[in-house]
Amino acid sequence: MLQTRKSNSTLNRASRKWILLAEDDDDLRLVVREAIESHFDFNIKVIEARDGVEASGKLKAQAFDCIITDLQMPNRDGQSFIEFVKRSAMNESTPLIVATGFPDPNLEKKHKDLVVLEKPYSTELLIEKVEQQLRLGRLNQRVGAEVLNTLVVVCNEFIKQVALAETEPSTPIAKKPGDDLHGKVVSCMKIKTAAGTCRLGLGFSEELIKNMYAAVSIDSKTPPEKIVDVALKVIFKLTGKMFNQITGDFPTLDERVVFESKSGELYKSIKDSKGVVIPIESSKGCLYAHALYVQNSASSTSGKKAA
């Protein structure tokens, strides 16, 4: 049986990582999962998939910090799965490790960022490569899975509690540089954790704002930006609480801004960033959760910093 030893890892509880493991060999998949979880003292959450189709399905509403895949798998082979990853809004930048008995030089030429391990390999070598790939995934270089996954859960709960509506799953959308934030009224906050910094944006549809007015019995003359600011406080508080329960780390808020218009230097810097948008739809309107690469902040007369 493959062996690995637990060593002092650069990870800690405050930076729990998510790994997708796609492998059709049940025994090997179990050994790899147990080796990873044991080495990182269970600060890694390993999600398993038995073939390329199942693995592709995991990408639609889940962010990962690293993906490990075989090449020869039933239903959808590893090469097709890798192409699917590269088109995935939530995981297009996720580091990939290919573990295969049949290396393909053409694949490595096409995707120069791939790490390839030829079977049979030692779990020590796999762990070494996983650690290297995870170190590439600081939040200011790409969106961290733990933060993004927590935000999505919190936004779903916010709609259920405030708008009193059930949410519906939606396909994430890749945000390209130059794309506006989604929503009638938009806001953002910069969140800092032990793993780094990322910017989260929230966009509220006009219908959702109207239903929020009705749900909390607020005077219709109250500016919608004020409603969104209150919502942002609630969502950040819930995100921090849940993140703390999961990781033991309580994130800090660096900036909280509600934009009075989609203009100004700060909004432009956010508009020019890339990331992912997760529409959280309901019968009472839509809340758009944005996870964005952090850009250099700029002052703006069109954004109102909340106290």
Question: How would you describe this structure to a colleague?
Answer:
By secondary structure, the protein is α/β, with parallel strands linked by helices. The protein folds into two domains: 13-135, Response regulator (Rossmann fold); 145-305, Chemotaxis protein chec (3-Layer(aba) Sandwich). Helices cover 36% and strands 24% of the residues. The chain contains nine helices and 13 strands. It has helices spanning 26-39, 52-58, 78-86, 105-110, 123-135, 145-163, 206-216, 224-247, 265-271; strands spanning 17-22, 44-49, 66-69, 96-100, 115-118, 167-168, 173-175, 185-193, 196-204, 252-259, 275-282, 285-292, 303-305. The strands form two sheets. Strands 6, 7, 8, 9, 10, 11, 12 and 13 form an eight-stranded antiparallel β-sheet that branches. Helix 2 (52-58) packs parallel to helix 3 (78-86) and helix 6 crosses helix 8 (224-247). The chain is elongated.
Global structural class? alpha/beta
Mean pLDDT level: 82
The coarse silhouette is elongated
Could you say how many structural domains there are in total?
A: 2
CATH fold group of the largest domain: Chemotaxis protein chec
CATH superfamily of the largest domain: CheC-like
Summarize the main sheet: 8 strands, antiparallel
Q: Write down how many β-strands occur, each being a DSSP E stretch of 2 or more residues.
A: 13
CATH architecture label of the largest domain: 3-Layer(aba) Sandwich
Q: Unreliable runs, pLDDT <50, ≥5 residues? A: 1-14, 295-302
Please state roughly what percent of the residues sit in beta strands, choosing from under 5%, 5-15%, 15-25%, 25-35%, 35-45% or over 45%.
Answer: 15-25%
Highest-level CATH class of the largest domain: Alpha Beta
Order of helices and strands: EHEHEHEHEHHEEEEHHEHEEE
Rounded Rg:
21 Å
Number of helices: 9
